[in-house]
Amino acid sequence: MTQVAPSEARPFELPGHVVMRSFVLETILLDIETGLYYRLDAARGAMLECLLENGTITDAAWVLSRAGWGERGELVDELTVLCAALEELSLVGERTVPASATRELARPRR
User: Fold this and answer.
1) 64 near 47, Cβ under 8 Å?
2) How are strands ordered across the β-sheet holding 18-22?
3) The pLDDT of residue 94
4) b/e map of 49-70 (b: 16 or more CB within 10 Å)?
5) How does pLDDT run across 64-108, given as a tens digit for each residue?
6) Every domain of the chain and the residues it spans
7) Helix, strand or coil, per DSSP, at residue 13
8) End-to-end CA gap in the chain
9) pLDDT band at 9, cuts 50/70/90?
10) Helix, coil or strand: residue 77
11) Cβ-based neighbour number of residue 28 at 10 Å
12) SS3 category, 20
């Protein structure tokens, strides 16, 4: 069984003060607290979207690898570098509420 580094297994999300919008050629991240925006090229934007949809670096690397983006190990490395850079800018953070709880909260009650 392969040992997973803690950073690869941490679930990531956008903090409440960050808004993300994807376009054809780029993804824009806006920090509404500072008014600063950041641009990711299309590939890095797609990687970030995959990470946010799948939660962890490990899971996102697996999905991207299955989609033909490259070897899983290399994708883990690329996603780790991307997350470290975005985390340093406070543009991503560790998920504080499990995704399943978020989906549960979003369901209307009858």
Assistant:
1) yes
2) 18-22, 26-31, 36-41
3) 85
4) ebbbebbbbbbbbbbbbeeebe
5) 999 999 999 999 999 999 999 999 999 998 877 655 554 444 444
6) 43-106
7) strand
8) 44
9) confident
10) helix
11) 14
12) strand
Q: Tell me the pLDDT tens digit for each residue of 20-40.
A: 999 999 999 999 999 999 999
- Return the pLDDT at 103: 47
Amino acid present at 16 = G
Beta strands of 4-105 (E only): which ranges? 12-13, 18-22, 26-31, 36-41, 93-94
Reported confidence tier of residue 62, pLDDT bands at 50, 70, 90: very high
Q: How far apart are CA 8 and CA 66, in angstroms?
A: 18
- Per the listing, tokens 């990470």 go with 51
